[in-house]
Amino acid sequence: MNPADRIALDKALEIKASLAGEEITVITAGPARAEQVLHMALAAGADEVVHLKDEVFEASDAYTTALALSQVIKELDYTMILCGNRSLDIGASQVPAFLAESLGIPQVTGVMGLETMSPGRVKLWRRLEKGRRQVIECPLPALYAVDSSAGQPRYVSEFSLRQAAKRRIRSLTLANIGLSQADVGPQASLIRVVSLSPPKPRPKKIYIPDGSLSASQRMSYLLSGGLAKGKESSLLEGTADYLAEQIIKYLIDEGILPK
Q: What is the model's pTM?
């Protein structure tokens, strides 16, 4: 299970513990091996799990995956949708937005914490850049995408996992939700990943001592970390017209101004 989805499930369990009569349903779309995720959810405390099973989801994009999930969710009597902010494989953070749009409900991303307020409203803490936090209120029903740094996933015992493996998983096919592979397969995808690669490293420039220097001088440069001499600075004096002319010349030489 994606780390962010694990944290989202924990947040759902915390809300369930504070309210009476609420149930947690975990849904996943994917091939047969995705059942492992649902067994983990049951072991952690989910009440029901649903597996939208089809191999085609391995080649689906965020839009078609969200479309299929929304068809399942529309049949449920839901109040709140919690999911991870991003997946572990592609990490595009697009499924929550597409899912909220398909369901016609508001969404909040980067959720670090939440608590229920008056009936039908939730208070949330969002993660912003540079460590900042945003506190907002949002009406229900809504979708909240939880950040993976919002906490540590709770421990799930081996005994709970063995017990969960014996429980029933509700399986659905595309036909059960009124869709076909043509609706969610690669041909229906709006996004196509052309390539995926790690970022190219930016190697630091290595200073090579001048060959005309003596061995001791070259060794001194190498031991100092290969620091090259900085550019010499100069102080100009003169009339205002002369100084302005020199400034313009410097900017042209540095390529800041066109020639």
A: 0.70
